[in-house]
Amino acid sequence: TNTIQGITTFLNTGTLTFGNNGTSNFAAGLTASSPSSVNIYGTVKTTNTTLLIGSPINLTGNSTISGNTLGNITLSGTINGGYTLDLNTTGTTTLSGTVGATTALTSLTTNTGGTTAINGGSVKTTGVQTYNDAVTLGADTTLTTTGSAITFASTVDSSSGAKNLTFATGTGTATFTGAVGGTTALGTITNASGQQLTFSDAVTATTIANYGTLLFQASSAKTVSANITDNDTTTIQVINSADGAPGIITFSGNVAADTITIGTTSKAGSALFNGTVLQGAGTTNIAIVGGDVSGEASLGNFANTVTVTAITLDDNTGTASVTFSGTGKTITGTINGLAATEGTITVSGTPTFVSTIGNSQRPSQLTINGATTFQAAVQ
Fold this sequence. Notes:
8-stranded parallel sheet
């Protein structure tokens, strides 16, 4: 370990190298904006003071850049190199240039606490990207991995305006643990074909352009404000990650998908659709599935127009039910139990049903509490 106690500024215009897998500790702060490039292999850190590298960074080995622990980290240039990079501070880490655009990093990890500002528009790794702190997007951003996961362990927001977040083709599963857009909304969130996005908290965005699977964890009540569009073979799942009664996922925008599943045979789900539910490019099937214990009842509540192929109610130990609560809304799509006498239907609004109910497998109960029009058989 090499330690320099005073404030350090590098004014050379050639290449600056921190190498040999050692530790370079600039206790009072580091500024390196003049060098043409900075090579890093090992640890570069300060002690609760600012660390600024304005030059392009080349990783020549697995590396850590640290504010240890409060110092802000500002990396203004591009970052490239086929190695791991850990960014550790409870202050703010600012990535102003692209990351991995020329040579993808092996992985990128930030520590818990603080904020990572992704302002350069893209981050590309071959392995995982793990953001353990809050993330802000200062530009429309594309994240890319080679089949590896991306994890947001805290919140994700735009820094100003509504920034788009895109996951490139080939990227693995992306998991959002904290709220998305809770402070400043995102624009369009776009997943890759076949990719799953998992949301464990509220989502505030203009649109989710779905090309794969969207999983909304229903362990607690939360709201998804975005319109959700169907662009490929798509699935929306609403499932409680824990045992017991689910929280309600409220979809404020319009929703379209090929398959919508509320609950599974082992976990319950509950969803309120305040926007329209539209048929995808082909057929659209909605399955409401009760869980494997009596407290795991699953519910789909539709407060607006529904245009789908079929709604299926699957009672297990937990029940499956559907409610139509909208005023003057049209419901298109057959409604059946998975088997005879499975599922219940409640009408609390004043809908018009265009398609048959119980034509193949009669649900156990139909309760009507409002003026209802049936244009096809009810069996």
